[in-house]
TrEMBL record:
SUPFAM superfamilies: Dimeric alpha+beta barrel. Residues 1-12 have a biased composition (Basic residues). It comes from Streptomyces venezuelae. It comes from the Bacteria. Residues 1-37 are annotated as: Disordered. This is Uncharacterized protein.
Length: 245
């Protein structure tokens, strides 16, 4: 199935946290007191990288995020890196970074030269391709929460099958069942072993209410009943800082 991407939406800047730097259009650091959510559907993004750090509480999580972002912000970046955003889970136990690149040639050489945190346990960056989007709210509303739901799968055919099934379920749901969902972005790992739905929600409360509803129940049922697919659960995140070109 061909990749379906929605048209780019204007992203509204966040201003709740006056200590977070915003996006920058140059290689040196930026001092703008904003964090802007990445445009996940931007058409020039052809490679996505996600990494995780495991932390003990909000204070350590924010410190790790700031250390990561400071390393990125102070290092000249190649043109192929489009955006970089970092998030803290609502459980205050996981830090997530999300990087968009024009291709797969720039991210790993660049990050090998960064002075990144060494203390917390972390994962190597997982490389993804954005495969499909479900756009519910086209207004460009900034999400109040991001939810990363992951699936372990047996190869590329299973990747596409579970995405198609869940997309069909979401698109056929009632407006009430979709309440609070801004967009869902389905990413496929390049090694064929993972599917990740990086979904934009209006706020935590909307996602919590969704979890008790029929749309969530049907989606989980679809995943549990599909051979070669194993749901790994989800985490909810809040944007901490971001950089973009």
């Amino acid at each position: 199935m061909a990749v379906r991407r929605s048209s780019a939406r204007p992203r509204r800047a966040r201003t709740e946290d006056p200590t977070t730097p915003g996006e920058t259009t140059t290689m040196p650091s930026s001092t703008a007191p904003m964090a802007v959510d990445p445009d996940i559907t931007r058409p020039d993004s052809h490679a996505v990288y996600m990494s995780y750090w495991f932390v003990e509480g909000a204070d350590q999580g924010r410190a790790v995020l700031d250390e990561i972002m400071d390393a990125w912000d102070s290092t000249p970046r190649p043109d192929g890196i489009l955006s970089f955003a970092c998030y803290l889970s609502t459980g205050n136990d996981v830090v997530l970074t999300y990087a968009q690149c024009t291709d797969d040639s720039v991210y790993r050489p660049f990050t090998r030269g960064l002075n990144l945190p060494e203390g917390p346990a972390s994962t190597d960056a997982i490389e993804y391709r954005l495969h499909r989007d479900v756009l519910i709210d086209p207004t460009g509303q900034a999400p109040g929460a991001m939810v990363a739901a992951s699936f372990d799968v047996d190869g590329s055919e299973r990747q596409r099958s579970i995405v198609d099934a869940i997309v069909s379920n979401v698109e056929s749901a009632s407006v009430d069942e979709q309440a609070g969902l801004i967009a869902a972005h389905f990413h496929l790992s390049v090694d064929g072993s993972r599917v990740l739905n990086f979904a934009e929600w209006t706020d935590d409360e909307a996602h919590i209410e969704f979890l008790g509803g029929e749309l969530s129940r049907r989606s989980l049922e679809i995943a549990n009943e599909m051979p070669g697919v194993r749901p790994l659960g989800f985490r909810r995140y809040h944007l901490h800082r971001s950089l973009a070109v």
